Amino acid sequence: MPAETWNFQAYRGSQPPTFANQAELACARVLDYYGIPWEYEPRTFVLEKEEGRIVEAFTPDFYLPEQDLYVEITVMKQSLVTRKNRKLRKLRERYPGVNVKLFYKRDISRLAERYRLDLAS
C-alpha cells in the first residue's frame, strides 16, 4: 500500500513507506498527527541462522527514535498470532537491549475508533 499520497511530516525515512495494510497507515497517520518522529521498517533482526544462512528474521513495522522503541502492528486473528509472539520472544532473548511493543487487532480497532480512522482494507 503506497503512501505517496500522504505528506508525512514526522517521517524520518529516506524513501516513501509502502505499508502492508490500512492499520499500518492509520498508525503512521496518528504518529504524524502528534509529531512523533518515526521510521518504517528500518531494521531487520536476525533470529536464527543455519550454516551461515538466515532462516528466520523479524522486521518491526515502526521505529520511534525519540523513545528508542520498535512497534509491530498485527491485524491477524488472535488465534493466528502465536507465530508472531514466538518471534517477539526470540527477538527479546537475542537482543535484550531492544525495546519492542506489539499492537494487536483489538488495539488497532480501538485506535481507529478513537481517531475515526477508516481501516476498511
What is the fold's blueprint, element by element?
Layout: H1 22-33, E1 39-40, E2 45-50, E3 53-58, E4 62-64, E5 69-73, H2 82-94, E6 100-103, H3 105-115
Parallel strand pairs: 5-6
Antiparallel strand pairs: 1-4, 2-3, 4-5
Helix pairs in contact: 1-3
Helical run tally = 3
How much of the sequence is in beta strands?
A: 15-25%
Kindly give the count of domains. 1
Distance between the termini: 10 Å
Helix content: 25-40%
Number of strands: 6
* Structural class label: alpha+beta
Spans with pLDDT under 50 lasting ≥5 residues?
none
Structure description:
By secondary structure, the protein is of the alpha+beta class. The chain has a single domain, classed as Endonuclease, Chain A. Helices cover 30% and strands 21% of the residues. The chain has three helices and six strands; from the N terminus they run αβββββαβα. The protein has a four-stranded mixed beta sheet with strand order 1-4-5-6. β4 and β5 form a beta hairpin. The model has no long low-confidence stretch (mean pLDDT 86).
